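Project standup — Tuesday

K.O.: blocked on the structure for the chain from last sprint. Re-posting the sequence here as requested.
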Amino acid sequence: MNIAKITDYITLDMISLDLKAKNKKEALLELSELLGTSDSIDDPKIIEQALIERETLGSTGIGKGVAIPHAKTNFAKKLTIAFGRCNKGINFDSLDNQDVQLFFVFASPLSDSSIYLKILARISRLIRSENFRDKLLNAIDSEDILNIISSEEG
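H.V.: unblocked you, prediction finished:
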């Protein structure tokens, strides 16, 4: 059985532990720029617009200080994931009204729904663990983040 792993779609350069954003709009811009550093993303501005459009359907701030902004667009050649941490926290209109510090953001081609949904479900499961969230909040560098995710994925 082929299990989709977050670590298959994220690289060290797709991790920022010091997002500068002060609000939701700035966070989406910064996260889309982070995704845009990947060769798999054709245009970070289009990704930003797709993330903003997705947010109009309902906040991807799912609670417990976590948001999972995501977009489906043909400007993503393949599923691409980035991770951002904002140490001060950002009002992201989360379901529980808590500020968001941890962001898993991804873009996927329109044709790739199966893997997209599996990864979304996997991230949603992992972030339920307070221990996992605490480890991400206390990680020292990008390598630490990848190791934490890899360890939790098994």
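K.O.: great, moving the ticket to review. Strands lie at 15-16, 61-63, 66-67, 70-72, 80-90, 100-108. Residues 6-153 form a domain with the Mannitol-specific EII; Chain A fold (CATH 3.40.930.10).
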